[in-house]
Design goal:
Layout (H helix, E strand, L loop, with lengths): L7 H4 L4 E5 L4 E12 L7 E5 L1 H6 L10
Antiparallel strand pairs: 1-2, 2-3
């Protein structure tokens, strides 16, 4: 029987399926990278999948000091 192997950071971290703001397509394993707030109207959230986070050295919002 094979078991899924994941990095330790991925096991306890909330992730979702949705739109990756970097490669502009749907993907799994998304993490929130940034939040753009606006005074009026809706803001915007930026999410990235694991390959994009690694390729662009992106630090998830929740992992920042």
């Amino acid at each position: 029987m094979q078991e899924a192997i994941q990095a330790q950071e991925d096991e306890d971290t909330p992730q979702g399926y949705g739109w990756c703001s970097w490669h502009e397509d749907y993907s799994g394993g998304l993490r929130l990278i940034g939040i753009e707030e606006q005074g009026t109207g809706p803001g915007r959230n930026y999410f990235a999948c694991k390959p994009c986070r690694e390729a662009n050295n992106l630090v998830p919002f929740a992992d920042r000091p």
